[in-house]
Design a protein that fits this description.
The N and C termini lie far apart (81 Å). Helix 2 runs antiparallel to helix 3, helix 2 runs parallel beside helix 9 and helix 3 packs across helix 6. The protein is mostly helical. The chain has one domain.
Length: 250
C-alpha cells in the first residue's frame, strides 16, 4: 500500500497522534488538578470570608473562619481527587476485563466492531481488512484498541492517584490563602475592614483572571475571554456568601 497516498499533506500518522495525545493528556491532568484545587479553594474561602465579614466585625472570627475553611476545603478536595481517581482506575479495570471476556467469548462480533471503528476513519477494502487482521492477531493490541477507540478510555497512571490528590490539596491551600491574607492585616490593625474586603476581592479577581488566561494558553480558547469568564463566575459565586452573611449580620 502506498502510504503517501493515504497520508496527504504530511498528516501525522496514528502512532504520532496517539503519542501527542498521551503527552498532552499527562500535562493536562496536572493543569486541571491545579486549576481545580486553586480555583475551588479561592472561590469557596472567599465566599466564606465575605459571609463572616458581613455577619460580624470581629477580625479574629474572620481569620479563624477563613483558616478553618482553608484547611477543611483543602483536605476535602484532596480526598475527593484521590477517591475519584481511584474510581476512574477501578472503572477502567472493570471495562478492561469485560472487553477481554467479549474478545474471548465472541471474537467475530468484536472483530466486526474493530472493522466499524476503522471504517469510520475512512479505510475500506483490503486496507481495512489488513488493519483488522493485524490488530486482532494479538489479543493485547486488540484489547487496547477496543478500550481507546471504542470506549474512549485511557488507563489511569497508578502514580497519578496520590500525586493528583497532593496537587489538588496544595493548590487549594494556595488558592484559599489568596483572599485570606488581607484579613491578617485587618486583625493586626494595619487595614480597615473596608480596605481588607476591597483588597481581597481585587487580588482574588486578578488571580482568577490569570488562571483563566493561563488555562486558555495551555489548552484552547481566547485568553482574555477565558480569564474574564473565570473571574465573573468566581466573584459572583463568592459574593453569594456575602449575601448570606448579611442575613445574619447585626
Amino acid at each position: 500500500m502506498d502510504t503517501k497516498s493515504k497520508n496527504p499533506g504530511n498528516v501525522p500518522n496514528r502512532s504520532t497522534r496517539v503519542t501527542r495525545h498521551i503527552e498532552h493528556h499527562g500535562g493536562g491532568g496536572a493543569l486541571s488538578d491545579i486549576i481545580l484545587g486553586g480555583q475551588d479553594g479561592l472561590v469557596n474561602v472567599l465566599g466564606v470570608i465575605l459571609g463572616i465579614v458581613a455577619a460580624t466585625p470581629d477580625p479574629r472570627i474572620i481569620v479563624a473562619g477563613g483558616l478553618a475553611a482553608t484547611f477543611a476545603e483543602s483536605i476535602s478536595m484532596a480526598a475527593v481527587a484521590y477517591t475519584s481517581t481511584l474510581a476512574d482506575r477501578d472503572f477502567y479495570r472493570a471495562e478492561l476485563e469485560r472487553e477481554r471476556y467479549e474478545i474471548q467469548a465472541m471474537p467475530e462480533a468484536e472483530r466486526e466492531e474493530v472493522r466499524q471503528i476503522y471504517r469510520a476513519w475512512g479505510l475500506e477494502g483490503e486496507a481495512l481488512e489488513e488493519v483488522v487482521r493485524q490488530i486482532t492477531a494479538n489479543e493485547e493490541t486488540w484489547l487496547q484498541v477496543m478500550m481507546a477507540d471504542e470506549l474512549k478510555l485511557q488507563p489511569v497512571d497508578e502514580q497519578r492517584v496520590l500525586r493528583s490528590a497532593l496537587i489538588v490539596g496544595l493548590a487549594a491551600v494556595v488558592g484559599s490563602l489568596i483572599p485570606l491574607i488581607p484579613f491578617f492585616f485587618l486583625a493586626a490593625g494595619l487595614l480597615s475592614r473596608g480596605w481588607a474586603i476591597g483588597i481581597s476581592l481585587a487580588v482574588s479577581a486578578v488571580a482568577l483572571f490569570l488562571v483563566g488566561v493561563y488555562k486558555a494558553r495551555q489548552t484552547v480558547g481566547r485568553p482574555g475571554r477565558s480569564g474574564l469568564q473565570m473571574t465573573i463566575i468566581g466573584i459572583a459565586s463568592a459574593l453569594a456568601g456575602y449575601g448570606i452573611g448579611t442575613l445574619f449580620g447585626g
